[in-house]
Amino acid sequence: MKLFVALFSGLLLATGFSHASNAAEKHLIYMHGCCVKQTSGAVAKDYQTIVQKLRDSGFNVFFELRTSGATDSDAQAQAYAAKVAEYVQGLLTQGTPPEDITVSGYSLGAMTTLVASGLIANPKVNYVLLAGCPVKVNIPVTIDYSKAGGRILSIVDSKDDKFGSCVGQLPNAAAFKEITLDSGEGHKVFRLTDETNLKLWKEPLESWAKGQQ
Predict the structure, then answer these.
(1) CA-derived radius of gyration, the chain
(2) Are 78 and 92 in contact (CB under 8 A)?
(3) pLDDT at residue 22 in the model
(4) Residue 8 lies in a domain
(5) What is the DSSP code string of 116-148?
(6) Closest to 83 in 3D by CA, of 107, 66, 100
(7) Domain that includes residue 141, residue range
(8) Which among 114, 113, 105 has a CA at the least distance from the CA of 145?
(9) pLDDT greater at residue 9 or residue 198
(10) How far apart are alpha carbons 140 and 158 in whole angstroms?
(11) What distances in angstroms separate CA 46 from CA 29, 166, 173, 190, 194, one per listed residue?
């Protein structure tokens, strides 16, 4: 499903990804991890389940399921971060309060979120890094940590050997908090759909997005 389809008058327009906004809405952009081989595969279905759970929590969720051929390189991550930033700027132009916008991502999506935050450059927009900051990854993404800003929540897992703590790496964050999980599942905990694991990161994400932390 292709959500971003056209750019007119400086605003990103899309099928299912409209700028139409209600002032009371909480907008959540969710970006999944790398290596999705098929849109009908098990991993893709896990991400779709996660997005539906987030929608069930009351968020206006913007999500694009993309396969590895469209995601798994630095250049593609940079381009997608620019699209996300353009979309967020469109919401802001239409009057959406920045506090009502949250950009989130898991793994590759977390790295893309960091890049997007530097492009958006609004200290009141919320960001959630699912897995935290990269340590040893298969797809390196160029990130200027000095430009990453806004209200940033990092959620890491103690058994993750690919991503880890962002402490000390985000000097210009308007607000920063990090939560460490001890799920025993490591990096993959952020794409598991059972309620026990899902709530470990979903509940703090919701609180952060709603300004309750």
Answers:
(1) 16
(2) no
(3) 45
(4) no
(5) HHHHH--TTSEEEEET-EESS-SS-----TTT-
(6) 66
(7) 25-209
(8) 114
(9) 198
(10) 21
(11) 17, 26, 31, 10, 10
Phi, psi for residue 105 in degrees, rounded to 5: -165, 155
Q: Which residue carries 């806004």 as its tokens?
A: 150
Predicted confidence band of residue 75 (pLDDT cuts 50, 70, 90): very high
Q: Which two tokens stand for residue 17?
A: 């990804």
Helix axes 42-56, 195-209, angle to 10 degrees: 50
| Tokens, residue 163 | 């991503």
| Rounded Cα–Cα distance for residues 64 and 175 (Å) | 27
The total number of structural domains that make up the chain: 1
- Do the domain assignments include residue 170? yes
CA terminus-to-terminus distance, the chain: 34
pLDDT at 213: 77
| Residue 211 region by backbone torsions, left for phi larger than 0, else alpha for psi between -120 and 50, else beta | left
Instruction: Supply 72's token pair.
Output: 């798994």
Q: What are 174's strand-pairing partners?
A: none
CATH of the domain at 66: 3.40.50.1820
Tell me: pLDDT of 102 over 60.
yes
Is 14 a domain residue? no
- With beta carbons less than 8 A apart as the criterion, state whether 111 and 141 touch: yes
Q: Is position 12 within any domain?
A: no
Q: What is the torsion angle, in degrees rounded to the nearest 10, for the CA atoms of residue 69, residue 70, residue 75 and residue 77?
A: -120
CA angle 63, 6, 58 (to 5 degrees): 25
